Amino acid sequence: MHPQDLVRDHTVYSCVMGSRAFGLATDDSDTDRRGVFLAPTPLFWRFEKPPTHVDGPADEQFSWELERFCELALRANPNVLECLHSPLVEHVTETGRELLALRDAFLSRQAHDTFARYALGQRKKLDADVRTHGAPRWKHAMHLLRLLMSCRDLLRTGELTIDVGDQREPLLAVKRGEVSWPEVESWMNRLAAEAAEAAPHSPLPAEPDRERIEDFLFRTRRASALEAYADDEVVQGVVRRVAAGQG
Q1: Per-residue model confidence (pLDDT) at position 17
Q2: What is the C-alpha separation between 71 and 158, in angstroms, rounded?
Q3: Which residues are paired to 34 by β-bridges?
Q4: Closest CA to 115 of 89, 165, 77
Q5: Given this model, what pLDDT does residue 229 score?
Q6: Residue 58 has what DSSP assignment?
Q7: Which of 56, 101, 182, 211 is the most buried (most CB within 10 A)?
Q8: Model-level pTM?
């Protein structure tokens, strides 16, 4: 099966991300699409395994296989966690709805470390731009501020909200280069400090609920195997016994 066919035929969840989901879109903004596909279980029984992620088939489209997506979300990967909280859902199946219902199971105080590491990497790139060119890439500075806001609010409330709300205009002013770099630096430092202060008192659990996610993934893989062999009673019986631990 061609990788892009997996996206076309087996996507369980897809959404719009980027500026449009963040409430920061302008007339020239791209439409970034992210999704999750479920590779049929029998494909894993071959030497050549299904891909963990696929680019396309549309422009600005990227999808993860369900297991890889869950692995990254359990590690509190910012891009993946935010994908689960997009307000712009374009497609969702029954499996996708169950995935969305598990959003809270992925959240934990580990998000502070992963968001902070990601933010530090982006900050170094901005600092390098300032040293080389005298100014940062302002769009990237805007998005780093947004990420730091999201991290702080997640730790304070236990909920991940990605729309910037009433911070849209201040952030777009940064994108337009209307705020000085020292002011932006100060804003970033303040947000990072506020996140660090909130982390020890966060309502989030110390770790994600790995058991709930693993149970979901197991049931989903099993259902896919049964569906693949629905017309073969002998094979179906074997698959059921194996899934039940009897084979």
Answers
A1: 96
A2: 20
A3: 15, 62
A4: 77
A5: 73
A6: S
A7: 56
A8: 0.88
CA distances from 239 to 218, 233, 247 (A): 13, 10, 8
Compute the distance between CA of residue 216 and CA of residue 95 in angstroms, rounded to an integer.
9
Cα–Cα distances in Å, from 115 out to 4, 206, 216? 30, 15, 25
Handedness of CA 5, 105, 154, 118 (dihedral sign): negative
The tokens describing 123, both together, are 């900050």
Question: Rounded distance, CA 136 to CA 13, Å?
Answer: 35
Q: What's the pLDDT score for residue 232?
A: 60
Asked whether the CA dihedral 61, 80, 89, 151 is positive or negative, the reply is negative
Low-confidence stretches of the chain (pLDDT < 50) are none
- Cα–Cα dist 190/193, whole Å: 5
Q: Are 89 and 6 in contact (CB under 8 A)?
A: no
Instruction: Render pLDDT for 201-219 as a digit per residue (tens, 0 to 9).
Output: 999 999 999 999 999 999 9
Task: Give CA separation, 75 vs 15, 19, 123, 233, in Å.
Answer: 21, 24, 21, 39
Query: What Cα–Cα distance (Å) separates residue 107 from each residue in 146, 208, 209?
Result: 19, 6, 8
In this prediction, residue 235 carries a pLDDT of 55
Q: What CA–CA distances, in Å, run from 12 to 24, 33, 35, 67, 68? A: 26, 14, 8, 12, 14
Per the CB < 8 A criterion, the answer to whether 97 and 107 are in contact is no
* Sign, CA torsion 108/224/40/96: negative
Give whole-number Cα distances, 165 to 64, 85, 87, 217, in Å.
Answer: 28, 15, 12, 34
